[in-house]
Amino acid sequence: MTAAKDPERVAAEEPEPHPTAEGDAVMEPTPPGEPVGRTAPTDVADVPAHPKESAQPTPGDAALAPTITLEMVQANEELNLYIASADRVMEAMGFTEHGFRHANLVGKIAYQVLSRLGFGERDATLACVAGYLHDVGNALARDVHGQTGAILVYHALRESVSRQDLMPILAAIANHEETEGTAVSPVSAGVILADKSDVHRSRVRKSGSPELDIHDRVNHAVEQSFLRVNSEARTVSLELTIDTGLSQVMEYFEIFLGRMQMCRHAAERLDARFRLVINGAELA
User: Fold this and answer.
1) Residue 237 in 3-state DSSP?
2) In 59-144, which residue ranges form alpha helices assigned H by DSSP?
3) Dihedral of CA 142/25/35/201: which sign?
4) 3-state secondary structure of 33
C-alpha cells in the first residue's frame, strides 16, 4: 500500500492479526515508514525539536525516564487477563472487538501522536501505556468502564510504578469516553484520538450480514482509516474510506458525532486542529 509510506500518516487502518495461543491478536512491528499502528513505539518520524507541555508540571519530573513501558504492561499477566476478559464481555454484549488488537493499536498510535506533535518521550510513553489499558474496565461492565478500569489498573500497578507516572495514566483511562470524560492532559488527549480513530471492518465480529446493527454496518463499511499527523501545520486528520453501498456517510455521523467532537477538543488540548476526511472530502 503506497499510502502507508507517507511519514505523516499514523495508521488506524487494521493490520493483519497475528493469532496467539489464546486466539487473540497482537501487533507486529514493521520497518519505519509503515503505518504507526504496525510500528513499534521506538519508530518515530517527523518529531519537532521542541517538546510541548508535560503531563506533570513539577520541574524536573518531565525529564525523568518513565517508570513503566508498554513492554512491562504487555508482560503483566493480571492486566492481560483484564484485557482478555473485557473482550469476552464485549463480545457477549454484541459489541465490536475490544481485545489485544485494539489495545496494541491504541497504545502505539497514542505514542506516535504525542511524539509527532513534539511532546516528550515520557508523555508519549505514558500515553502508550494508558492506550493499551484504556478498556480493561469492560471486564466488569460497559457502563463507566473508564472509571472502573482506572481502579483496576491502580491496584495492579501501584506497587511498581511511581505516582508521578501512574496518575496521568489513570486519568487518561478514566476520561477516554465521551459520555463521562474529556481530554484532561496531553496523555489523555493522545489516548482519545487513538481510540476514536479505530474504526474498521475488521472489528466486526459477526460473520453474517451486518445490516441489522448500525454500529456493525458502519464499521464494516470502513475499508481504510488513517490518522494523519502534520507536525508543521499542527493538524490531526482522521481519513476514512467508506463503502457507501454498505453504509451512508450520515450513518457515521449518527453514531460517532460525539466521538468526533471529543477528538476536536482532544486535538485542541495538544495545540492542534482535528480534521475528519471521508472519501477525500473534508467534513469537519
Assistant:
1) strand
2) 70-74, 77-92, 100-116, 121-133
3) negative
4) coil
**Would you tell me how many other CB atoms lie within 10 Å of the CB of residue 21?**
5
Please, are residues 282 and 275 in contact by the beta-carbon 8 Å criterion?
yes
Cα 7 to Cα 4, 10, 222, distances in angstroms: 8, 8, 22
Q: Three-state DSSP class for 200?
A: coil
Half-sphere exposure (Cβ direction) of 196: Cα atoms closer than 13 Å = 34
198: exposed, middle or buried (Cβ count in 10 Å: 0-12, 13-18, 19+): buried
Question: Is residue 227 within 8 Å of 150, Cβ to Cβ?
Answer: no
Write out the H or E segment, with its range, that includes residue 10: strand 9-11
**SS3 assignment, position 227:** strand
Q: Helix, strand, or coil here: 154?
A: helix
| Under 8 Å between Cβ of 44 and 115 | yes
Q: Which domain holds residue 78?
A: 2-282
Residue keyed to cell 507536525: 231
Q: Could you tell me the pTM of the whole model?
A: 0.75
- pLDDT in tens for each of the 284 residues of the chain? 333 445 455 554 444 333 222 332 223 322 223 333 333 332 333 333 333 444 444 444 445 678 999 999 999 999 999 999 998 998 888 777 778 989 999 999 999 999 999 999 999 999 999 999 998 999 898 888 889 999 999 999 999 999 999 999 999 999 998 888 899 999 999 999 999 888 766 566 665 554 556 677 777 778 888 899 999 999 999 998 888 877 788 887 777 788 899 999 999 999 999 999 988 888 86
Q: Position 202: which residue type?
A: S
* Closest among 171, 174, 173 to 185, alpha carbons compared: 171
Q: Into how many domains does the chain fold?
A: 1
